[in-house]
Write a structure and sequence with these properties.
- There is one protein chain.
- This protein is an alpha/beta fold and about 300 residues long.
- The protein contains ten helices and 14 strands.
- The strands form three sheets. Strands 11-10-9-12-13-14 form a six-stranded parallel β-sheet, sandwiched between helices. A five-stranded antiparallel β-sheet has the order 7-3-5-6-8. Strands 2-1-4 form a three-stranded antiparallel β-sheet, with no helix packed on it.
- α3 crosses α4.
- The model has no long low-confidence stretch (mean pLDDT about 95).
Length: about 300
């Protein structure tokens, strides 16, 4: 099969088109013929080596984290899927490789593709959709009537998170540029801050939950938007000790994560709020919930 390979970690390095054997199928795997794949910032960061301490892929390896396609074969222990099923997924860490004609994926990471969208649309969803779901539903436990501030509302995670938060009954604020104000309003944002002309810290206050996806300066400002007892979830770092423990990192890396996040955790504690770092993981059951929301029209996959 043809695949795009990373030969060595290199910033802005080109991928090599290679001919490789089809992936080996484990007992609980499905083999997916790739119909479409998404290209994410995460892909460039992995290629550049920014995550090699916690995700030590050994070059050469196939890149790619999002996929939609058709199952061609299933392992002997697979029960939820069959050949011919149209599916989508974000394969688990250490088993990525969607920039290829075929990929073997653990069935626990896979969900049936929404019937009302194309392969291309479906391939754009798993990483951003699961990030939003795990932030708002799993970690944030967002409840009706709560206030949530979602940064970068016109981005991939932002557009999905706004719609999900509104479905959960929250009041949503977001930031965007002037040209995308109407877009985020159409997705359900109740308060929109044009970052080109406004400072969100001066406009917003008393939020139960903040989803941070920006730089350290924005993170520090975001802490002051959260009300006492509230929660700030960051998908852009810094990683915290809980992440290090759940990810199974060694003692040295656990210490590094503790030191990297010590400043923000101390500031959060001083303000009476909680800080949590989220590194999205593969989860087929959650993706199935997302499929239902897309098929029912609650969430639109188009932008």
């Amino acid at each position: 099969m043809k695949a795009f390979v990373v030969d060595k970690y290199k910033k802005q390095g080109a991928l090599r088109l290679a001919n490789l054997p089809e992936p080996e199928l484990r007992d609980d795997d499905v083999l997916v013929q790739v119909g479409a794949t998404g290209v994410n910032v995460l892909d460039s960061k992995v290629r550049d080596g920014e995550f090699k301490l916690i995700l030590p892929y050994r070059p050469p390896f196939v890149l790619g984290h999002d996929v939609a396609g058709i199952i061609t074969r299933v392992g002997p222990k697979v029960r939820r899927f069959k050949a011919g099923d149209e599916v989508y997924a974000r394969p688990r860490d250490h088993r990525i490789g969607t920039f290829a004609e075929f990929i073997a994926i653990n069935e626990a990471d896979v969900a049936l593709k929404p019937k009302n969208i194309s392969m291309e649309q479906a391939a754009s969803i798993p990483l951003v959709g699961l990030t939003a779901w795990q932030a708002l539903v799993e970690v944030g436990k967002l409840k009706p009537g709560q206030k949530v501030f979602i940064q970068a509302g016109s981005g991939g995670v932002g557009t999905f998170a706004i719609q999900l938060a509104k479905h959960l009954g929250a009041r949503v604020a977001t930031t965007t540029s002037t040209r995308n104000v109407e877009l985020v309003k159409s997705l359900g944002a109740d308060a929109v801050v044009d970052y080109k002309t406004q400072d969100f810290e001066k406009v917003l206050s008393g939020y139960d939950l903040v989803l941070n996806s920006q730089d350290p300066k924005t993170l520090e400002k975001s802490l002051r938007v959260v009300k006492a007892g509230g929660l700030l979830i960051s998908i852009s770092g810094p990683p915290d000790p809980t992440f290090a423990r759940e990810f199974g990192l060694n003692l040295f890396l656990k210490l590094v994560m503790r030191l990297l996040s010590r400043g923000v955790r101390k500031k959060a504690k001083g303000l009476g709020i909680r800080y949590s770092f989220l590194f999205m993981r593969a989860q087929g059951q959650q993706l199935s919930e997302i499929t239902s929301l897309i098929e029912s029209g609650v969430i639109s996959s188009g932008r």
